[in-house]
C-alpha cells in the first residue's frame, strides 16, 4: 500500500479553460483548420504543389476520424498500412498484366484481399479500397503513385502530431467532471429517498440523469485508458493516470445506484407496503451510507484544494454491522437489503482507494486476517472426493 502523502492542486482558471475547450467541437474545428493550412503549405512551398491537396486531405482525415489520441494513432497505422500494401502491389499487378487492364482488374482484389485476410486487424477496409481503385488509373504513372504515398504517410503523421500537441482531448478532466456530477446526482436522490420526499416522477427523471453520467464516465475512462497507452504521453494525461481505478469504481457506484432506483420504480407500491419499522431502519442505513458517500465525494472533487481524509468514511466491519441489524424476512426486503449491501461494498472500495496514503489500521488488519483464515478453511471443510 502506498504511503505517499495525498496532495492535489486545483487547475488554474486558464488550464481549466483549455481542458474544457479541448473537449469541444470548436477545438475539433480549430485542429481541422490548422491541419488544412499546414498540410497544404508544407508541400506547396517545398516545390511539390501537386501533393499539397493529398497531404492536406490525409491530415484532416486523421483529425476528423481520430477524435482521441488513441483513435488517431489507430487510424494512422491502419490507413498507412493499407496504402503501403495496396498501392505498390496493385501497381505491380497492373504492370505485369499490361496492356490487358481487364485481367489486372480481375487479379487485383484476389491478391490484395488474400494478404488482408492474413492480418485483418492491420488494415482499414474503407482505406484499402480507395488505393485499389486508384491503381487502375495510376498504374503506369509513377509520379502519381509517389504523390499518393507521400500524401497519405506524411499527412496522416502530421494529423496525428496535431492531435497530440494542439488541444489534445483531456478525457481525464471530462472524467473528473462526470464524477462530480454523478456524486451530486446520487447523493441528491438518495437524500430525498431517505427523508421520504422523493416522488415517482422525480425518481424517473433523476434516474435518467444519473444513468447518462454513468455511461459517459465509462466512455471517458475507456478513452483515457487508451490514450495512456501511447509511447509519448501528454502532461494532462499523466495528471489523471493514478485516478483510473477511482473513475471505474465511481462508474460502478453510479451504476449500482441506477439499478437500485430502477428497482424502486418497478416495485414502488411493494416498497410502500413494507413493514414501517423495518423500512425506517433500512432508510436509516441508507442515510449512513449517503453520509459516507458525501465525504468521499468531497475528497474526489479536485476543483477545491482540501486536506486528505484522516480515516476511512466506511469500513467493512461497519457495513457488516449495519446489514446484520436488518434481517430480511421476505422477498422484497431481501431485494432492498441486497441493493443497500452492494452500494455499501462499493463505498468501502472507494474508501480504500481514497485512503491509500494512510497506514492500515487494526480493523483492516483483522478483516484481512479473517478473510485469509476463511479462504484457508474452505478446502478443509469441503467433502473428500470419491
Give a brief rundown of this model.
The chain folds into two domains: 24-165; 171-379, Methane Monooxygenase Hydroxylase, Chain G, domain 1, CATH 1.20.58. It contains 16 helices and no strands.
Give an overview in words.
This protein has about 375 residues and is an all-alpha fold. It has two domains: about 25-165; about 170-380, Methane Monooxygenase Hydroxylase, Chain G, domain 1 (Up-down Bundle). It has helices spanning about 15-20, 25-45, 50-65, 70-95, 100-120, 125-140, 140-165, 170-195, 200-225, 235-240, 245-265, 270, 275-300, 315-325, 330-355, 360-380. The longest helix is centred in the first third of the chain and has 29 residues, at about 70-95.
End-to-end gap: 43 Å
Q: Sketch the topology as an H/E string, one letter per element.
A: HHHHHHHHHHHHHHHH
> Looking at the structure, what is the overall shape?
elongated
Please count the beta strands (DSSP E, at least 2 residues each): 0
- Percent strand equals under 5%
Low-confidence stretches: 1-6, 378-386
CATH level-two architecture of the largest domain: Up-down Bundle
Mean pLDDT: 83
At the first level of CATH, what is the class of the largest domain?
Mainly Alpha
The tally of helices reads 16
What is the makeup of the main sheet?
none
In the residues, how many domains can be counted?
2
Q: How much helical structure, as a percent, in the residues?
A: over 70%
Structural class: mainly alpha
- CATH topology (fold) name of the largest domain: Methane Monooxygenase Hydroxylase, Chain G, domain 1
Keywords: Membrane, Transmembrane, Transmembrane helix
Protein name: Aromatic acid exporter family member 1
Organism: Paraburkholderia caballeronis
Amino acid at each position: 500500500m502506498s504511503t505517499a502523502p495525498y496532495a492535489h492542486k486545483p487547475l488554474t482558471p486558464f488550464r481549466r479553460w483549455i481542458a474544457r475547450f479541448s473537449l469541444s467541437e470548436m477545438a475539433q474545428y480549430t485542429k481541422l483548420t490548422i491541419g488544412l493550412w499546414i498540410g497544404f503549405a508544407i508541400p506547396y512551398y517545398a516545390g511539390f504543389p501537386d501533393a499539397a491537396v493529398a497531404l492536406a486531405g490525409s491530415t484532416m482525415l486523421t483529425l476528423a476520424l481520430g477524435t482521441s489520441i488513441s483513435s488517431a494513432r489507430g487510424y494512422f497505422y491502419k490507413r498507412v498500412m493499407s496504402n503501403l500494401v495496396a498501392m505498390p502491389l496493385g501497381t505491380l499487378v497492373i504492370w505485369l498484366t499490361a496492356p490487358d487492364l481487364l485481367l489486372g482488374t480481375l487479379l487485383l482484389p484476389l491478391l490484395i484481399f488474400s494478404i488482408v485476410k492474413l492480418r485483418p486487424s492491420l488494415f482499414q477496409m474503407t482505406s484499402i479500397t480507395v488505393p485499389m481503385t486508384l491503381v487502375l488509373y495510376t498504374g503506369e504513372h509513377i509520379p502519381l503513385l509517389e504523390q499518393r504515398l507521400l500524401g497519405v504517410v506524411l499527412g496522416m503523421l502530421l494529423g496525428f502530431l496535431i492531435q497530440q500537441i494542439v488541444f489534445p482531448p483531456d478525457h481525464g478532466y471530462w472524467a473528473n467532471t462526470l464524477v462530480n456530477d454523478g456524486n451530486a446526482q446520487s447523493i441528491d436522490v438518495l437524500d430525498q429517498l431517505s427523508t421520504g420526499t422523493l416522488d415517482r416522477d422525480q425518481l424517473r427523471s433523476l434516474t435518467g440523469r444519473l444513468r447518462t453520467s454513468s455511461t459517459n464516465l465509462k466512455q471517458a475512462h475507456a478513452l483515457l485508458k487508451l490514450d495512456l497507452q501511447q509511447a509519448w504521453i501528454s502532461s494532462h494525461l499523466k495528471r489523471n493516470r493514478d485516478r483510473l481505478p477511482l473513475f471505474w469504481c465511481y462508474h460502478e457506484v453510479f451504476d449500482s445506484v441506477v439499478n437500485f432506483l430502477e428497482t424502486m420504480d418497478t416495485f414502488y407500491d411493494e416498497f410502500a407496503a413494507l413493514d414501517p419499522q423495518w423500512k425506517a431502519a433500512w432508510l436509516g442505513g441508507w442515510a449512513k451510507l449517503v453520509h459516507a458517500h458525501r465525504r468521499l465525494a468531497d475528497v474526489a472533487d479536485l476543483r477545491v484544494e482540501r486536506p486528505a481524509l484522516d480515516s476511512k468514511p466506511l469500513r467493512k466491519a461497519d457495513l457488516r454491522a449495519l446489514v446484520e441489524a436488518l434481517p430480511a424476512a421476505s422477498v422484497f426486503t431481501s431485494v432492498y437489503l441486497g441493493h443497500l449491501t452492494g452500494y455499501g461494498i462499493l463505498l468501502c472500495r472507494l474508501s480504500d482507494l481514497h485512503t491509500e496514503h494512510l497506514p492500515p489500521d487494526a480493523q483492516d488488519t483483522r478483516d484481512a486476517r479473517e478473510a485469509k483464515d476463511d479462504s484457508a478453511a474452505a478446502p478443509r471443510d469441503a467433502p473428500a472426493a470419491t
